[in-house]
Amino acid sequence: MTLTAITRDVDPSISHCELTYQSRVEIEYALAVEQHRRYQAVLSEIGCEVVTIPAAQGLADCVFIEDTAIVLDEVAVLCRPGAASRRPEVAGVEPVLRRFRTLASIQSPGTLDGGDLLRVGKTIYAGLSTRSNQSGIDQLRAIVSDHGYTVTAVTTPSCLHLKSAVSQVAPGTLLVNPEWVGTEVFKDYQLIEVDPEEAHAANALLVAGNVIYPTAAFPRTASRLAALGLTLLPVDVSELQKAEGAVTCCSLILNT
User: Fold this and answer.
1) How many structural domains comprise the chain?
2) How high is the pLDDT of residue 23?
3) What is the CATH number of the domain that holds 223?
4) Is the pTM of this model over 0.85?
């Protein structure tokens, strides 16, 4: 079995990205490209076969490929992003995913961003957010239930996506910002809270037992993770963070 990481290049229009909770600041395109390349290199170094899709001209958010799909072992579900400007991104990802999986898709009036979907084993937690609605979550549930998955909706009123507030960092262990999401739904897991001074620190990417993480941006939370013996692989995604991006956003990880 091979781990494949599907990524997408940064488009020069990234400074015109969608923003919901952050103020717009200038993004250094060349630096964003370099940071993204390093992110891809880290994925390669831990054994992923990195597949890169070219950027689509004028699709400012296309580097955040996670929002276009959720990929399970049995099926890939193409999402319907909540921001209308992002829906054309899916067309560029579809033919690549078709090489690896049978496809299903979310239809109008449903909206669903992949960043709102946290899969832990056979449970998918789905953020009910400004980008993902109940119809989208219900459609996902209908698609994946035949494969043995359950879908649990989680209200996320204080952040862009569910995975802005919680992500998996080890088997049975979640990194969470309790100010942004209720933790009762996650009571069966070990919870590591982010440092209170690092509100955006809950997004981490667990791949092959390694945690890809922006340690320099969130040093206090990184120390909490390291204290548990987790293997942290540092990345700098400061320019992508200006676009409300994070480390899970920039790849689709799948077994092939």
Assistant:
1) 1
2) 81
3) 3.75.10.10
4) yes
pLDDT digits (tens, 9 = 90+) for 102-135: 999 999 999 999 999 999 999 999 999 999 999 9
Taking 50 as the pLDDT cut, the residues of the chain under it are: none
Cβ(106)–Cβ(112) below 8 Å: yes
For 121, the domain range is 3-255
**pLDDT score recorded for residue 21:** 85
Active site residue 161: yes
Q: Name beta bridge partners: 4.
A: 49, 254
Give the ranges where 3-161 is alpha helix by DSSP (H): 29-45, 89-98, 134-144
Q: Write the DSSP assignment of 173-221 as a string of letters.
A: EEEE-TTTS-SGGGTTSEEEEPPTT-TTTT--EEETTEEEE-TTT-HHH
Catalytic residue among 48, 79, 249, 250, which?
A: 249
Q: Which of 48, 79, 161, 200 is catalytic?
A: 161
> Taking Cα atoms as reference points, which of 188, 220, 218 lies closest to residue 203?
218
